[in-house]
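Much of our argument rests on the idea that a fold can be written as discrete symbols. The amino acid sequence and the backbone structure tokens for this protein are reproduced below:

___
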Amino acid sequence: MVVKKLPKKTMGLFVGIALGFSAVLSGCASSDGDGSSGASPSSAEENLSFDTTFSLELGSSLGLPGVSPEIIKHPDGGYLLLATSIDQIRAFRSSNGADFEPDPSISLPMGSDYSLVQRPDNSWLLYYVSFDGPPGNPGEPMDPSTMTKVVMVSTSQDLKTFSAGQATGISQDGPGMAWGVPDTYVTPEGKVMMMWVDEVEGENWEVLRTATSADGLSFTANEGFVISDGYVDPYILRAEEGDWVALLSTTPATQRLPQKIFLARSTNGETWSIAAQPLLEASDRNYLDPGAVEVAPGEWLVILSTSEKDQALSGPYDYVSATLREQE
């Protein structure tokens, strides 16, 4: 059983880092939409009290390209950032949370959307998205339209080397753009949960689904979805008894741009209320893929991806920092 996560989001057929990165960027892209919400602001109750105030102050660029960042406090001190990008090195260390340097000693499994959970014995579970599909013709890359995404898990004792990945049981039903960007976190009962972006029949926009695991290795998808209306890129800041807090972004569908960052709250991790106003928005830029790590009581270092408004699905994407504060 897993009891805590340090505060922080194919196989052989994953042919080409650039191809995989391209597929990741479409992971939260709505396949369709008529411009209307098709739902209330979430599939959640709308009367949950936001009895504390959160503010998000934008910081500076990290000088690193990428999406779907995962950041944790490293057991040896400082911070560890896992990036999803086309670069060969995807692991970075920082002593201050602002200046990150590559750490080539860390050998990550091939994949994207990394998410870490620590076990009681101080070993680690690393979750990531991989791809499956028919191989391309000789000398040609795989066709993204034929690939399906699967969530894999690897284990590590030292955050440097990782075991061969095994399937978690969570995978895409069939090829499609709007799927992925999973975040993993630990419930008050000590189970591991996963939340990811999906699209379901009858919904115009992306939804967020969840799955549960007793051992952190094998997951069972829960019925239905917990959030709808095109909220994507979930990151669970807190999962405590009666008090769950998440950061979300919004769909990259053209008619809903720019992408913004919202705060969501829940009493049980199943029924969510989303704040009426975004924490972060800009008329000319997209902000997406939040990841965070608590640096002091009520204060988090947040790493976000950003792009120009009209480049939501093409990039380039860069990481920027921000500070999230909670006040009673």
About this structure: Residues 10 and 131 are 4 Å apart (CA to CA). Helices lie at 17-25. The first strand starts at residue 53 and ends at 65.
